[in-house]
Amino acid sequence: MVHIHFQIICLFAIFHHVVMEYENRIRAYSTPDKIFRYFATLKIINEPGETEVFMTPQDFVRSITPNEKQPEHLGLDQYIIKRFDGKAKFFKVKKKTLHRVRKKSKVSVLQRRRKKVHQEEERARPGSTEDKGKEIKRKIMEWLEKKISQEREKFADEGSIFYTLGECGLISFSDYIFLTTVLSTPQRNFEIAFKMFDLNGDGEVDMEEFEQVQSIIRSQTSMGMRHRDRPTTGNTLKSGLCSALTTYFFGADLKGKLTIKNFLEFQRKLQHDVLKLEFERHDPVDGRITERQFGGMLLAYSGVQSKKLTAMQKQLKKHFRDGKGLTFQEVENFFTFLKNINDVDTALSFYHMAGASLDKVTMQQVARTVAKVELSDHVCDVVFALFDCDGNGELSNKEFVSIMKQRLMRGLEKPKDMGFTRLMQAMWKCAQETAWDFALPK
Fold first, then answer.
1. Of the candidates 402, 70, 403, 36, which has an alpha carbon nearest to the alpha carbon of residue 223?
2. Which of 300, 311, 289, 307 is nearest to 387 (CA)?
3. Cβ(269)–Cβ(57) under 8 Å?
4. Ranges for the EF-hand domain (predicted)?
5. What's the 3-state SS for 244-271?
6. Crossing angle (nearest 10°) for helices 87-104 and 128-152
């Protein structure tokens, strides 16, 4: 019996691993349309009766994070259906709350009885019954609108950048393309694009000019290059931004100007909110995640072969069996450091050429100089436990920078190619895996 139970557990683990690998391939190689349809979980029926597929902020983060399994029974074109038109609940409301609504409308029991007994007399009074019916119906509709409005608030906090997208945090396909573009594009690229369309040099662009900036930037990203409108699935890239974002950037009359400073602040807030969702998904205890969880966040997009990845994680577990964990502030400081990874790479190269070793003190000095943040000793300990391969207290500069650049881009810079390029990448990965099998001790 124990043997059978063990076999079932093994089969379940194998199935879980196979599904995760399949989902990782979708993230890495599929078109934006398929990625969106696979990881989105909601289909909304709006007031005109039309349907549209949306992601929640959690769906969005899961769609760009390797090894995060999609919820059971929700996959390609499988959604939870929610109504925002109130029809699904109207009859239930009509039966259960009519008495409560009538009571609130100050129609007494005596008046209702009189209405039943003297129906003809009541009808003779001009408009009285009709007016009361309209009043009751109006109150029911007000209650419905309030109820529907409350349900819409469940998807994102009002302080979150996702809330500015409209529908209280739900992400449409066009929003999905826009957000992945913002996440995968370095700050410097946006600065250059803004200057291209800033004709008078005042550092501002209007809505039409920003749409051109957005179009150019998107065409340079892997998501933008691989996207093809698919009317059959409803995933077509609409021109411009959603109405909530245009209001956010250009004001209610859409005549405002967007500065590069304000847009980069939007990018910073988006990166903060996505990182916060990643942090919270690890179920922090007393506001802290474990060192191994932090290591997993760093290696999530690394592309490191599975054998080596396992070895690095074991090394981390060995160093921090009873670690104190890391706060969100410590994690955010390190990722702020990563945003400047190209400048960090240059600074570390100078140290290397000067013959100086790359130790923890050097890393903290580079963080202060380049990114204007303080890296705690504990964060540095975790990073060195991952990347100090020979245990001499010095970092492998080349590998560290390479993996951190991939982490910063969240894998979004990879071309979504389903043809020859993918075949060659698969063959190269297989060769690397085989090499690691020979290299690692049995």
1. 36
2. 311
3. no
4. 185-220, 375-410
5. HHHHHHHCCCCCCCEEHHHHHHHHHHHH
6. 120
Nearest to 423 by CA among 25, 69, 20, 19: 25
Query: pLDDT by residue (tens digit) across 86-109?
Result: 454 433 334 444 445 445 444 455
Strand pairing partners for 326? 289
Q: How many C-beta neighbours within 10 Å does residue 236 have?
A: 15
Tokens 């411009």 belong to residue: 240
User: What is the distance between the alpha carbons of residues 52 and 233, in angstroms, rounded to a whole number?
Assistant: 10
CA dihedral 250, 254, 257, 259 (to 10 degrees): 20
To the nearest 10°, the Cα dihedral for 272, 276, 279, 280?
Answer: 180
Residue 194 tokens, joined: 């803004």
CA atoms of 391 and 78, how far apart (whole Å)? 48
Q: Distance (Å, rounded) from C-alpha 327 to C-alpha 335? A: 13
Q: Token pair 């509709």 is at which residue?
A: 141
Q: Is the pLDDT of residue 389 over 50?
A: yes
Give the pair of three-digit tokens for residue 59: 């769906």
* CB contact at 8 A, 224 and 180: no
Q: Decide if 424 contacts 417 (C-beta within 8 A).
A: no
Would residue 394 be called left, alpha or beta, if left means φ above 0 and alpha means ψ between -120 and 50 degrees?
beta
Provide the b/e sequence for 40-63 (b: ≥16 CB within 10 Å): bbbbbbeeeeeeebbbbbbbbbbb
For β-strands 51-54 and 42-45, DSSP reports them as antiparallel
HSE (CB half, 13 Å, CA atoms) of 123?
A: 5
Name the E strands within 143-257: 204-205
Residue 324: CA count within 13 A, CB half-sphere: 7
Q: DSSP readout, 111-122? A: HHHHHHHTHHHH
Measured at the CA of 398, the angle between CA 394 and CA 404, to 5 degrees, comes to 95
CA distance 161 to 258: 17
Q: What is the DSSP string of 415-436?
A: ----SHHHHHHHHHHHHHHHHH
Give the model confidence (pLDDT) of 165-186 as tens digits.
766 788 989 889 889 888 888 8
Alpha-carbon distance values, 16 to 12, 19, 70, 433 (Å): 6, 5, 11, 20
280, 381 contact by CB (below 8 A): no
Q: How far apart are CA 274 and CA 300, in angstroms?
A: 14
Backbone angles phi, psi at 324, to 5 degrees: -90, -5
